[in-house]
Amino acid sequence: xxxxLGNIFIKDVIFSNETKVVDGVLHVNKEAxxxxxxxxxxxxxxxxxxxxxxxxxxxxxxxxxxxxxxxxSGPGGVFPGFISKVNTVGxxxxxxxxxxxxxxxGTIVGFQEGIIDMSGEGAKYTPFSKTLNIVVVCxxxxxxxxxxxxxxxRLAGLRAAALIGEAGRNVEPDEVKVYETLPLFxxxxxxxxxxxxxxxxxxxxxxxxxxxxVYGVDAxxxxxxxxxxxxxxxxxxxxxxxxxxxxxxPTYVHQNNPIIEDxxxxxxKDYNFVGVIITNExxxxxDKERSSDYTAKLVEYLGLDAVIINEEGFxxxxxxxIMNCKKISEKGIKTVxxxxxxxxxxxxxxxxxxxxxxxxxxxxxxxxxxxxxxxPMKKVIGDPKAANxxxxxxxxxxxxxxxxxxxxxAITASTSEVGFGTxxxxxx
Length: 428
What we know:
By secondary structure, the protein is α/β, with parallel strands linked by helices. The protein has one domain. The chain contains eight helices and 25 strands. The protein has helices at residues 30-37, 146-165, 184-190, 230-233, 251-255, 258-266, 285-301, 316-329; strands spanning 2-9, 12-15, 20-22, 25-28, 43-51, 57-62, 64-66, 69-73, 92-98, 100-106, 114-117, 132-140, 175-180, 196-203, 210-214, 217-218, 225-227, 237-241, 272-280, 306-310, 334-341, 362-367, 371-374, 379-382, 404-407. The strands form seven sheets. It has a six-stranded mixed beta sheet, with helices on both faces. The chain has a four-stranded mixed beta sheet with strand order 8-9-1-13. A hairpin with a 2-residue loop joins strand 3 (20-22) and strand 4 (25-28). The chain is globular. The protein starts with a strand and ends in a 21-residue tail after the last strand.
């Protein structure tokens, strides 16, 4: 597959009577987008606000972050299985409104949602303090079950991102980046002397409100399978989970997975980046055994010399991470793990819930239990009281002056387990 990403660099976002891009400025027709989103009868109210880097603005609780894009050529469309038909994506050309993001918020869905601060101490830890954020505030109708509440907010974000992304359809990109992966046998033939490297991409799928979608299918329902790396880059994977904000992968991160991008950077030079194996994170031991066995089998079958394995979440998924690591390593294939740590507020506790001697090459992206103090903001979009109940918060986390004291857990993508955040850790 060959994918062209046409990046249109946006320098500002303003409200206007038409959604369009003019001289690098994204104009957003707020009323038109609200009207479109309100077609879903499960929404009682929708509002749209803007949050820009450096402003004293807090968004809480954050459900998802999505990059606006539009498919301009090739098969499929944006967010297949939700916005577009279920056609395979990952080839052709997609235009991207870089530096912008659609952020969904509103009444809390579950206790594991997050915080984005656009300035101050909190802005240091979330990559989304640097994006021009179009914030969609959703209020569902009363009495809506939690799973439908999650669904309607998730869909509202995807629909808004698709509508805004259309503004880039006929705009000449500022740059075009090309990503290409050949079929397996052709790839091996082209790079016979380079080590074959793959990426084991763990998707959060632990239970209720812990969902990730692949072409519209809940990852709990899949067996590990092989994908071209360009497919997740082109919107094949969508976040629908409510795990701790620090290490959940919002849809934006799936669209811009830095592991995939970095592997492409050295593809054909230092190694042969063969492809991506997606796998789920399960609750029962039988399911964990099945998926890890299947993952190791695929890695062996593809003839890989080494793999990078990332986690999404913590605790229970630590077992999936270590099982994948152990079974792949036992086949003589090198592994590198990417994970965050839950090492206690003092950093002295065991970092992972499960360990094995084969996990001897680990990239840490920080300790999610670290305490941070977030100063009050002049403007809050959403519901600040969520700070008292979100993961990483506690009763009294929200002070009377509007400041918040929480663990890094509560900050969106602060310890991103694909390395999308700003933190790293070093062992001594």
